[in-house]
Design brief:
single chain; 92 residues; globular
């Protein structure tokens, strides 16, 4: 099963985290948006919180933008974005 998510990335944040906002997900990363570091950090962040292999996460749109479209291939479906965020907040 694949999930397609629109994510707003905030690089150089003081603390990494995830929020559900009206436009979708906002993910704060502590790394700068230089030489693909934020993209790699985003994939690692999502991989860690979702329990999905890094190779199962692909940025399909917006590699050089703060607004990205990500496809997540996972055998386990998520009920909704709210359930996803709740799951993440429980782990933090």
């Amino acid at each position: 099963m694949s999930w397609k998510l629109d994510i707003r990335v905030v690089p150089n944040a003081r603390k990494a985290g995830i929020e559900l906002v009206e436009s979708g997900l906002r993910i704060k990363l502590t790394v700068p948006a230089v030489e693909g570091k934020a993209n790699r950090a985003l994939i690692e962040f999502l991989s860690g919180i979702l329990g999905v292999r890094k190779s199962g996460i692909t940025i399909v749109k917006g590699e050089k933008s703060r607004t990205k479209t990500v496809v997540i291939d996972t055998p386990e479906p998520f009920e909704s974005l709210a359930a996803l965020v709740a799951r993440v907040q429980q782990k933090n």
